[in-house]
Each structure stands twice: as structure tokens, then as C-alpha cells.
Write a structure and sequence with these properties.
alpha+beta; Alpha-D-Glucose-1,6-Bisphosphate, Chain A, domain 4
Length: 160
């Protein structure tokens, strides 16, 4: 298995509220078209992530559609709303609107063509963490990183 170069950067900026931007940047030995083909059908998250056992859709599998992802243990869920989708620019955007200790959580995945059958996935999450007794900020950041890295690694396997 080829290993993808994974760069994780956590940037925290303070304003009146603590907001995080957590980009995950991964270079892949496959064309942008092949990578985008896998990412654009993100209705199969349960096949890409060990954290999700089931995905249910409400509305279109496109902008405005909502998906509810059930946790692997079946005890929890989170709801996402698709806010952007563009085959031409290879971008996919969604908001997490329920089920995580964060508010205003906006995510964007972009596939960049690097030429010579190489591409890059850029996955950015912006959110305001909500203090709570069930999960610390560090635990949430670790969860996000682990979940996204696993999904990108599984996408990489699919396009090899």
C-alpha cells in the first residue's frame, strides 16, 4: 500500500469566541478525476469510516440534502447538511448541524490536480467548540483528525 503524505495543522485564532480551523492536506498518487469520483459520492461514509455504521438521507444527495450518520455503536448520531457541491471545481461542502460539541461547523473538501497522475485532497473544518462534560476540546480535535485521516486513507486505497 502506498502511504499518502498527510499534513495536519491545527490553527487556533482567538476573537470574541474560540474558533478552530483544522485543515488536513493529503497528496495522493492518483489523478484528481479518480479521487474526485470517490469523494463526490460521499453518501457512502459508512463504507469509508469505522465511526459510522449507517447513513440515512433526507432530501436530495446534493445541495440542501441532509444525512444522518449513526455511530458505530448505534448509540449516537450526527446530522450534516450539504451546502455546496461542484464537479467543475471538485469541491464538496457541508455543515454539521447536530450531534457534535461544536457550533457553526462548516467543512469543505477540495481535490486539486497536481498533474502527472497526482492530486491533493484539502479538507478544512471550521467550528466553535462548545464546552461540555462528555468530550474535551482535545478529544474532539483527535476524533476529527482520526476520522478524516481514516476516510482519506480508505479513499486512497480505492483509487490505487
Amino acid at each position: 500500500m502506498k502511504k499518502a503524505a498527510i499534513l495536519f495543522i491545527l490553527l487556533i485564532s482567538t476573537t470574541s469566541v474560540l474558533q478552530a480551523q483544522t485543515p488536513l492536506v493529503t497528496e495522493i498518487e492518483s489523478s484528481a478525476d479518480n479521487v474526485w469520483e470517490q469523494i463526490r459520492k460521499m453518501d457512502n461514509i459508512d463504507e469509508l469510516s469505522s465511526f459510522v455504521s449507517k447513513v440515512q438521507w433526507k432530501g436530495p444527495k446534493d445541495i440542501g440534502g441532509e444525512r444522518v450518520c449513526t455511530s458505530a455503536d448505534g448509540k449516537g448520531h450526527f446530522k450534516e447538511k450539504i451546502t455546496g457541491f461542484n464537479d467543475e471545481t471538485r469541491t464538496y461542502s457541508y455543515q454539521v448541524i447536530e450531534g457534535v460539541p461544536a457550533k457553526n461547523m462548516n467543512n469543505m473538501i477540495k481535490v486539486v490536480d497536481l498533474g502527472y497522475k497526482k492530486s491533493m485532497i484539502i479538507w478544512i473544518s471550521n467550528f466553535e467548540f462548545i464546552e461540555n462534560p462528555n468530550m474535551t476540546r482535545e478529544q474532539f480535535d483527535n476524533f476529527l483528525t482520526t476520522a478524516r485521516v481514516e476516510m482519506v486513507e480508505n479513499i486512497t486505497k480505492l483509487v490505487e
